[in-house]
Amino acid sequence: MNNRSIPQILRCIGGMTIAAAIPIVLHFCSSSANADDSNKSARLVSLAPSNTELIYSLNAGGQLVGVSDVCDYPPEAKKKEKVGSFNSVKLEKLTKLHPDRILLITGQEALANTLKKHKLPITVLDNSTIEQIPKNLETLGAITNKNEEAQTLKDNFTKSLNDLKSILSRSKSRPRVLICVWPQPLMAAGKGSFMDQCITICGGVNCTGDLSQAYPRVNPERLLLIKPDIILVPNEVRNEKFWLKAPWKYMAAVKQNKLFVLPQYETDCLYRPTLRIKDALHWLATTIHPEFKKEIDAWYRTKSPSHPPSRI
Questions:
Q1: Where are the alpha helices (DSSP H) in the chain?
Q2: Does domain 3-165 have CATH number 3.30.70.270?
Q3: Domain segments of the chain as ranges
Q4: What DSSP designation does 256 have?
Q5: What is 173-311's CATH superfamily?
Q6: pTM of whole model > 0.85?
Q7: Residue 40: which pLDDT band, with cuts at 50, 70 and 90?
Q8: In 3-state terms, what secondary structure has residue 128?
Q9: Which residues, including other chains, have CB under 8 Å from residue 245's CB and lie 6 or more apart?
Q10: Quick check: do 3-165 and 173-311 share a fold?
């Protein structure tokens, strides 16, 4: 198993780095998020992929003068000046860009504190839940002077999410789902994690939702005891065939061909609290509740790309 792939997949699931997997304290700088309301074109630096993506959703990508090296969507973001990574920044390069505001997310508190010490203007957005997506759109809309666009996207997203919940509320069953975040060591989605919330929205029960850590490690003994109806594994390990070995091969879901590989999107959208979460929810909902596929497909809209389940 190639452990070097782990950071690439789990760079910022719900704003929390897996290595830390500890409670987050949110810090904001003294200047408010509305400080740039009057600026028609602020100079922004985004150090988190979800913030970058939401800014482009607001058609404000032109205000980005710098990003982190993990900001890879949309493709235009890759052309922006790289000023650091998710966990560190090149201060000299950053200051030369003269940013009006530097945008971070929960999970980047250490980096936020470093920037504060250098008297740089920062805003930290909480992206730990799906409900934060419309709130973050509103905040970024104020910063980029795109309030009207933000309100439209916010309303549309909230309605869409409620419509999906309404469809799945008619289900008579709630399958037990195990999301294998990484197979070796086995890491799953625990209580309160972003993916735990996705499973619930899509009409499932998270098998490891009783574990207090957001992304806990699960030992082989517990794996056999949780008895999931459906198992989801990362696309990046589809060629590893670890499910053919113990203890996976003894699990009913594997024997019943109910182990699915997450789709290979252009970039991870199940792990990012952005508007593209709708792509992930479409796939996840139809995988958990195929009996509602027609209604879920209609909800997703035919103009959106389709990502059918990839069954092992």
A1: 6-9, 49-57, 91-96, 109-117, 132-144, 147-168, 194-201, 220-226, 252-255, 277-288, 293-300
A2: no
A3: 3-165, 173-311
A4: T
A5: Nitrogenase molybdenum iron protein domain (3.40.50.1980)
A6: no
A7: low
A8: coil
A9: none
A10: yes
